[in-house]
Amino acid sequence: MTEFLKQTISRRAVLGAGLAGASMLAMPSILRAQDKSLKVGVYGGYFKDSFDKNIFPDFTKATGIAIEAVAEPTGEAWLVQLDQAAKAGQAPADVSMMSQVAMLKGQATELWAPLDMAKIPNGANLIDRFVNKYPDGRVAGIGAVSWYITLVTNTDVYKEAPTSWQAFWDPANADKLGLLALVSNSFLLEVTAKTFFGGTNALDTEEGIQKAFDKLAEVKPNVRLWYRDEAQFEQALKSGEIPMGQYYHDVTGLAAADGNPVRSTFPKEGGIQDSGCWALSRASTKVEEAHVFIDYMSQPSIQALLSRKVGTSPTVKRELTDLTDAEFAAVSSDIEPIIPRYDLYQTKSDWLNQKWTELIVG
Amino acid sequence: MRREAPQKLGDYGPLFFPAMMLIVFFVVPFATMIAVSFFQRQQGGFYVPAFELANYQRFLSLFFANVLGFSLMLAVTVAICCVVLAVPFTYLLTRMARKVQIVWLVALLSVLSLSEVIIGFAWSTLFSRTAGITNLLVMAGIMSEAKALLPSFGAVLTGMVYQAFPYTVLVLYPALVRLDPTLTEAARTLGASPVKAFFTVVIPALRNTITATLIMVFIFALGSYLLPQLLGRPQHWTLSVLITDQAIYQSNMPFAAAMAVFLVLVTLGLVALTVLAGRKGDAA
């Protein structure tokens, strides 16, 4: 899932896209022939390339709907653009892949058109938590892909794989950890709550969150690097410079397959499962096509294909897919995951951010 | 040559283009930023136009005062290190043969073509335990075992001085080239050693240039946000890092704008003080 952050569009790709665009304009008949079309926003780079190559052509073949993939920036910039455009009645993309926090923020402004589950029969395949709902029960989005953040170690330095997130608190690991630098992408509060306070429900109250912060403060002396840039940590993990930390399960698996001395472990408390949703802008006029697209993407066979080709974890129930144990283990785990408390990052984001920054900077 | 004062509107013509550029690329964005800094943040959403001081209030805390203080201290340290290194270097450079000068200047210019990212990653490799320069010291028998030199304040400082050094030299170079060589010759004939002549004649003659260079490097260093992240610990993060966090990761534009406005005001204040102090020095 994270590979795409490291990819940049090559000059060749730009030239290619320019040429393709120019020839499209020169032959408008091709455009007209495909009267059914849909603009789909996916994270630019690796993600968009994989979807363009492995998913979209088959979709067009199966449904006759042409897909125009739009590279969307990560973070919330895309949400801002969609929101501004919707106010003007425009949709830069009909369907977009959105993070969970962005889904909640979009709900606040009624940006997402409610989806009709009757038109998405494959929606029944989904694991419940991947159906994103408005507070009144209307469906705002459908799980597109999910991925795990797990406990990673350098195998040269740690001969035995750690079994619990508690390893972060072990005084023996002083100055050895690499952790994500933001409260809203490291999800360490949830990890602390699950590991020491019985579950993420412990974060329901401010006192509970404060207790988690206090416990998390004990990790600080063990942290060598608080990273925003993934390449920075990945490099240090491979070389053993920073031999332990939290990182993306899929990318770590790829690095290990390339022969690097790294491993990803699902701790007994569970890996952190983050995910993206398909959501339809309220300004879109392609409501029918969007439902067809989302239904298509929710098929177990397509989710299995995504696991194999893109490295994401399926959003449909495992038993419905034909993934082998090895294929499933490469992207996921049967251990109950830690689900981030996205609601907190919407309702308490400034307070959490301030406490977090004071914790790690102070 | 005598310059005529502009007589009619047309005489101001050549000024229109730069003025337009200044307005479009500086005044308008800066005014937007000031406006946004008073807007109301909507948690879990974006922001709405308003006039409130909450964003500035949030900034006025001991925590942010410490971060601001560290950022200013870091920028001043970088400026002083750069100038202390670059003045003697550039002075010696200007005394060299033309060909040698060109080689040095091209080398310095090529450093400018490196992005902050490349500089950051290069130094983080050089300072690492597994592949860093301490391994060479171990091989030479000076150290017993390799160790990591980062994250640390020294690493941040090194990276930033490395990045700002070429600018410093390029700003100092024209002034030093034009420096009248008869000044030092006179000092030498009056019995001063080369070192003494450098400190008592060259440095005072360049006082204004050096002040201007210090200010330039200071401002340049103040905006750095990548190197402190790559080479330092969280306590070495500058205010610019926190501004980026707010703007990009928290989508809290009003607060980010308020911090940026504050940083600009403090910077302008410090520059004004420096210039004033310089004037006083001249008058004395």
Chain-wise SSE layout:
The complex is a heterodimer of chains A (362) and B (284).
Chain A: H1 3-6, H2 11-26, H3 28-33, E1 37-43, H4 46-54, H5 56-63, E2 66-72, H6 77-87, E3 95-99, H7 100-108, E4 131-133, E5 139-154, E6 177-180, H8 183-186, H9 188-196, H10 206-217, E7 223-227, H11 230-239, E8 244-248, H12 249-257, E9 262-265, E10 272-280, H13 287-297, H14 300-309, H15 325-331, H16 342-347, H17 349-361
Parallel strand pairs in A: 1-2, 1-3, 6-7, 6-8
Antiparallel strand pairs in A: 3-10, 4-5, 5-8, 5-9, 5-10
Chain B: H1 13-37, E1 40-41, E2 47-48, H2 54-59, H3 62-94, H4 98-112, H5 116-126, H6 134-139, H7 153-178, H8 181-189, H9 194-205, H10 207-222, H11 227-231, H12 239-249, H13 253-283
Antiparallel strand pairs in B: 1-2
Task: Give the gist of this structure.
Chain A is of the alpha/beta class.
Question: What does the model show?
Answer:
Chain A is 43% helix and 18% strand. With 362 residues, chain A is an alpha/beta fold. Chain A folds into 2 domains: 36-146 and 274-331, D-Maltodextrin-Binding Protein, domain 2, CATH 3.40.190; 149-273 and 336-361, Periplasmic binding protein-like II (D-Maltodextrin-Binding Protein, domain 2, 3-Layer(aba) Sandwich), CATH 3.40.190. The longest helix of chain A is centred in the N-terminal third of the chain and has 16 residues, at 11-26. The two termini of chain A are 32 Å apart. Helices cover 73% and strands 1% of the residues of chain B. In chain B, a hairpin with a 5-residue loop joins strand 1 and strand 2 (47-48). In chain B, helix 8 (181-189) crosses helix 9. The longest helix of chain B is centred in the N-terminal third of the chain and has 33 residues, at 62-94. Chain B has 13 helices and 2 strands, in the order αββαααααααααααα. Classes of the chains: A alpha/beta (362), B mainly alpha (284). Chains A and B meet through helix 6, helix 7, strand 7, helix 11 and helix 17 of A and helix 3 and helix 12 of B.
